[in-house]
Amino acid sequence: DDAEREDGPGEEESDEDRVARVARELLGFGSGTPSTSNDTHPRGVRMDSILPAHYGPVTALLPSPFAKDVFLSVGDWTFNLWRKGIDAPLFVSPFATAMITCGAWSPLRPGVIFIGRADGSIDVWDLNFRTSEPSMTNTMDGSGTAVTSMQFQADGQLLAVGDHLGAVHIMEVP
After folding, report:
1. How far apart are CA 57 and CA 165, in angstroms?
2. What is the pTM of this model?
3. What CA–CA distance (Å, rounded) separates 94 from 48?
4. Buried b (16+ CB within 10 A) or exposed e, 88-104
5. Residue 126 main-chain phi, psi, to 5 deg
6. Which of 49, 122, 146, 167 has the greatest number of CB atoms lying within 10 Å of its CB?
């Protein structure tokens, strides 16, 4: 099974392989409930449980770059951390003041998560330091345009942020 395979010496799992593995292991549905996979669904997807996670659609589902069995789900006003095989979130964030639209794991620092919001802000959570509130919040340009996507450059120094109006912002990450 691809989900259980270990990369050989010198082999690193590609982003595409990781996304495919996450999609097989933990699926986000429009109802806001991720599902772990096991039993066969009529369309060929295997499921064994549906896990209550969010009040609205799951808008992002991302594997940790540091732990292959840990996942970030983003939706409604919260983000959750999950571990494969555990039927409850390891962590549920406090409710944000605006809808959460996307997320990204720091590729350099375990426990650091970037969360995009509908009000144009990005919350930086350092879960090693604080879990009750973001460590910092950055507003993109003051226009209140929703952050819709985020992607780190391979070296982790630059974060590309897409917004609702079609603009791409490049942020330097210290």
Report:
1. 21
2. 0.73
3. 28
4. ebeeebeebebebbbbb
5. -105, 95
6. 122
